[in-house]
Design goal:
It is built from 14 helices and 18 strands. The chain is an alpha/beta fold. It has two domains: 190 residues, Aspartate Aminotransferase, domain 1, CATH 3.90.1150; 232 residues, Type I PLP-dependent aspartate aminotransferase-like (Major domain) (Aspartate Aminotransferase, domain 2), CATH 3.40.640.10. Strand 13 and strand 14 form a beta hairpin. Bound molecules: pyridoxal-5'-phosphate. The site of pyridoxal-5'-phosphate has 14 residues, from helix 6.
C-alpha cells in the first residue's frame, strides 16, 4: 500500500489484525519512552494522511472522522497547504515576532480581522496552541479590566497549562493533584437542551442557565464589578459536543454589557468554518469581545491566535509574548487554509453536516443506545444512553462503539462522559459520510446486541 493509493481511497481497508506488527512495535516503544499522560482510545499508528484518509504503519487505511481532534480542517496534507509550507520553509523558518517584524504576521492578522465575528478594528496576538491563546485571553482580560474574577462553565475545556486548566472543568482527572490552580475562577452550569428538566421551555431554560450568574454568583460570591470576563465555548467541545443555544449566549452578552465584563468566546475547536460559519458564535447572533482560535487554523501546523476588539488589547511591551507564536511557516499554512475554507470547506461543512443530520434524524428513535444527535456543520455529537427515558449515560457502550468503529477502519473519538463526536475534515464528501454512518450504525447494533467481540488490544 502506498500513499498514492490513499489519494484515491474513500473507504477503509483493513488487512491486518489491529494493531499490525509495525504498529505493535511502535506502541511498545511508546509505552517505554513517552509520557503516560496521553489518552489513546485505540492503537492507531499513523504514517500517511491524505484528504480524509489515514494510512497506518502496516498499510491499513482508515477513514478519519476525528481530523486529529478537529485540526486538519482542509484534510490531511492538502496539496495547497503543503505547497505553501514548502515555499515558506525555503524562504524563512523563524525570526521570532516577539523581537522582530515579518510580513506574514500582519498579512494573517488582516485576514482574521476580515472574518472576525465582531466589528473591527481588531488586534491579534499569536501563540502555538489553544491553551496559549486562552492564557493570553485570561491575562489580557485581567490586564485590561484591572479585575480579577473570571467565570467559566462546567464541562468546559480550555487547555491544560495552569491558567487554561483553571478554566477547564471537564474531567476531574485533568485537575487531579495540580491544585492550587489560578485563583479567581468560578464555574457555572452550561446548558444541555437534551438534559433540561422535563416540561421546561428550551429557550427559557437556556436563559435561566445564564441567569444563574446574576441570580447566584453575583449575589453570593463575586461582586460583578470585580469580574473581568466570562469565558465560554459557543459550542462546548470536549464537554460533550453541545451547541450553545442563542438565548443563552444573548443573555451572557447582556450580563457582560450591564457589568462591564468581557465576553471571551473560545473558538479553538468550533472555529475556522467547522460549524458551517467561520465561528460557532455566529449562529447565536452575539458579538464577542475576544475570540481564541487554534486547531483548524493551520491544517495541522501549531498556531493559535487571540483576536480582540482593538481597544481591549492595551497591554504594553513586555506584558506578554512567545518565541514561536506566529511562526511564518505556520502562518503560510494558515493563509492557504483560509483560502480553501473560504472557497469550499465552509460551505461543504454546512452541506455534508446537513446530510449527516438528515440521515441520522431518526437514530434516537430507531437505534438502541442513541439518546440524542445534535450539531452544526461538521461538529456533531451522538449521545449514548442505556435507558432512553431515564437518559442514563452509557459511557462504556460509547467507548465500545468507538472501539468497534476503529476495528472497521473508522476513526472517531468520544467527547464528554457519553458522547461520540463526528469532526471530520471540512472537505469530507457525502459519500465518505455515508460510509462512516454505515460503519457507525453497524457498530452501534453490534454493541447493543452484545455481539461485539472486544479485540485483544482492548483487554
Ligand atoms: C475549546 C478548546 N479550547 C482550548 C483547547 C486547548 O487547545 P490545545 O490542546 O491546542 O492547547 C481545546 C483543545 O481541545 C479546546 O477544545
Amino acid at each position: 500500500m502506498t500513499p498514492s493509493t490513499l489519494m484515491h481511497a474513500d473507504a477503509p481497508v483493513i488487512h491486518t489484525k489491529l494493531p499490525g506488527p509495525n504498529a505493535r512495535r511502535i506502541i511498545a516503544d511508546d509505552a517505554r519512552l513517552i509520557s503516560p499522560s496521553y489518552t489513546r482510545s485505540y492503537p492507531l499508528v499513523a504514517k500517511h494522511g491524505h484528504g480524509c484518509m489515514i494510512e497506518d504503519v502496516d498499510g491499513n487505511q482508515f477513514l478519519d472522522f476525528s481530523a486529529g481532534i478537529a485540526v486538519t480542517s482542509t484534510g490531511h496534507c492538502h496539496p495547497e497547504v503543503v505547497a505553501a509550507i514548502q515555499k515558506q520553509a525555503a524562504e524563512l523558518l523563524h525570526m521570532s515576532g516577539t523581537d522582530f517584524y515579518y510580513p506574514q504576521m500582519t498579512e494573517l492578522a488582516e485576514r482574521l480581522s476580515k472574518i472576525a465575528p465582531m466589528p473591527g478594528p481588531h488586534r491579534v496576538y499569536y501563540g502555538n496552541s489553544g491553551a496559549e491563546a486562552v492564557e493570553a485571553a485570561m491575562k489580557l482580560a485581567r490586564y485590561h479590566t484591572k479585575r480579577q474574577y473570571i467565570i467559566a462553565f462546567y464541562g468546559a475545556f480550555h487547555g491544560r497549562t495552569m491558567g487554561a486548566l483553571s478554566l477547564t472543568c471537564s474531567k476531574a482527572q485533568q485537575r487531579r493533584r495540580f491544585a492550587p490552580l489560578v485563583p479567581g475562577v468560578v464555574h457555572v452550569p452550561y446548558p444541555n437542551l437534551y438534559r433540561r428538566p422535563a416540561g421546561t421551555d428550551a429557550e427559557q431554560y437556556a436563559r435561566d442557565t445564564a441567569r444563574h450568574i446574576e441570580d447566584w454568583v453575583f449575589r453570593t460570591e463575586v461582586p460583578p464589578e470585580e469580574c473581568a470576563a466570562i469565558v465560554v465555548e459557543a459550542f462546548q467541545g470536549e464537554g460533550g459536543y453541545l451547541p450553545a443555544p442563542p438565548a443563552f449566549m444573548q443573555e451572557l452578552r447582556r450580563i457582560c454589557d450591564k457589568h462591564g465584563i468581557l465576553l471571551i468566546v473560545d473558538e479553538v475547536q468550533s472555529g475556522m468554518g467547522r460549524t458551517g460559519k467561520w465561528w460557532a458564535v455566529e449562529h447565536t447572533g452575539v458579538e464577542p469581545d475576544m475570540i481564541t482560535i487554534a486547531k483548524g487554523i493551520a491544517s495541522g501546523l501549531p498556531l493559535s491566535a487571540l483576536v480582540t476588539r482593538a481597544e481591549i488589547m492595551d497591554w504594553t511591551p513586555g506584558s506578554h509574548a512567545s518565541t514561536f507564536g506566529g511562526n511564518p511557516v505556520a502562518i503560510a499554512a494558515a493563509m492557504a487554509t483560509i483560502d480553501i475554507l473560504e472557497r469550499e470547506g465552509m460551505e461543504n461543512a454546512h452541506k455534508v453536516g446537513e446530510h449527516i443530520l438528515t440521515r441520522t434524524h431518526d437514530w434516537a428513535q430507531r437505534l438502541p443506545l442513541v439518546g440524542d444527535i445534535r450539531g452544526r456543520g461538521l461538529m456533531i455529537g451522538i449521545e449514548f444512553v442505556s435507558d432512553k427515558v431515564a437518559k442514563t449515560a452509557a459511557t462504556e457502550q460509547r467507548d465500545l462503539v468507538v472501539e468497534a468503529a476503529f476495528e472497521k477502519g473508522l476513526l472517531v473519538l468520544g467527547a464528554g462522559p457519553n458522547t461520540l463526536r463526528l469532526s471530520p475534515p471540512l472537505i469530507v464528501t457525502k459519500h465518505q459520510a455515508d460510509i462512516a454512518l454505515d460503519i457507525l450504525e453497524e457498530s452501534i447494533q453490534q454493541v447493543a446486541s452484545g455481539k461485539y467481540k472486544r479485540p485483544s488490544w482492548s483487554e
